[in-house]
Amino acid sequence: MPQPTDQLYTIPASYRRMENMHILFWLLKDIGWCMLWKPLGLSMIAPTLIIALIITWRTRDIKAELAHNLAIVLWISANSYWMVSEFIGFDTVRVWGNVTGKHLALLPFFAGLLVLLYYYLVQKPRENRAEPVATL
């Protein structure tokens, strides 16, 4: 049960509809990838990524939301790159040593992880220290 000091996070209905549409596009993209339906998978990259960027921009003033939504943008980027590498056939091509085209998707995956690590190890502790102490 929420405590009286808990802050409420609310979003406008139009934002929620956009988030729901984002989930639909993301699922269609991954279904296209899973089923090797290249036109579906490739055509869903742009709407999925654009909506993720819009959501990230709209929540930029809430540091926790910004960090998580930025990580999602990077995740979708990595995921989309990986899908494209498989569809085009350079996923197994060696680009450097044992690193293949598919492994390059790790760059945005790790970038998203770094964003979240920064949030949880640096930003969130700062926010917790800055919270006012209740006085009687």
Automatic annotation (TrEMBL):
| Protein's UniProt keywords contain Membrane | yes
Alphabetized UniProt keyword annotations: Membrane, Transmembrane, Transmembrane helix
Organism domain of life: Bacteria
Q: Which residues cross the membrane?
A: 35-54, 66-84, 104-122
Instruction: Please state what the protein is called.
Output: Uncharacterized protein
* Organism encoding this protein: Hymenobacter psychrotolerans DSM 18569
